[in-house]
Design brief:
2 domains; 23% helix; alpha+beta; 195 residues; globular; 19% strand
């Protein structure tokens, strides 16, 4: 049996706090984390995004890959059975930095903690519950990606300790001209490009 836990965010990254004190002020994200911990589905976190020093075949960008289609909601909105899978995230060892368009259609650098939260709570949590938006996710035309982006923006507010943030501090949504899409750039450069 796994004890209850909560997430602690700090300058050194993300830690998980277990034990009785974790339950006192558990955040929405701590609750989601416990849902994943208590699940019968298996999730594997792989820090291999654009890291060719530590991985022979690094992946090109952060993403969450379900083990099967059971994590997707049906076209009529009914939940699937739920799925486990893999979460691929960048670390400080990645050769690239990642960002996304804000609501003003400017690319903003995204902290790896936010990227991890986006994948964990914006994709894996919904897949685990069988409620992930099942529409195709083609770059530049992903209205279903708003499900994960809305969770990411809540996480941004949570980490900032604020109810409201400036548009430049949020990720844009599908309704914005650049649709909140992901971008990347080589570390030390200024030019952003599509993943």
């Amino acid at each position: 049996m796994v004890p209850d836990g909560d997430l602690q965010f700090g300058k050194d990254g993300v830690t998980i706090e277990f034990g009785p004190n974790a339950n006192k002020n558990r955040s929405e994200f701590g609750k989601k984390l416990n849902d994943l911990i208590d699940s019968t589905n298996t999730w594997t976190i792989i820090p291999d995004v654009k890291d060719s020093k530590n991985f022979k075949e690094p992946v090109g960008g952060p993403f969450t890959k379900p083990a099967n289609a059971n994590g997707l909601a049906t076209a009529s909105g009914l939940p699937g059975l739920g799925s486990g899978g893999e979460i691929h995230i960048p670390t400080s060892k990645s050769e690239y930095e990642f960002g996304a368009y804000d609501p003003n259609d400017r690319v903003q650098l995204t902290d790896p903690v936010i990227i991890f939260g986006h994948e964990l709570f914006g994709h894996a949590w919904f897949l685990n519950n069988g409620t992930h938006d099942g529409r195709p996710q083609k770059w530049g035309d992903r209205p279903g990606h708003d499900q994960a982006i809305k969770v990411e923006n809540l996480l941004r507010k949570f980490l900032a300790g604020k109810n409201e943030l400036k548009p430049s501090e949020l990720r844009g949504l599908w309704a914005n001209p650049m649709k909140g899409e992901s971008m990347l750039r080589m570390r030390g450069t200024i030019e952003w490009k599509r993943p």
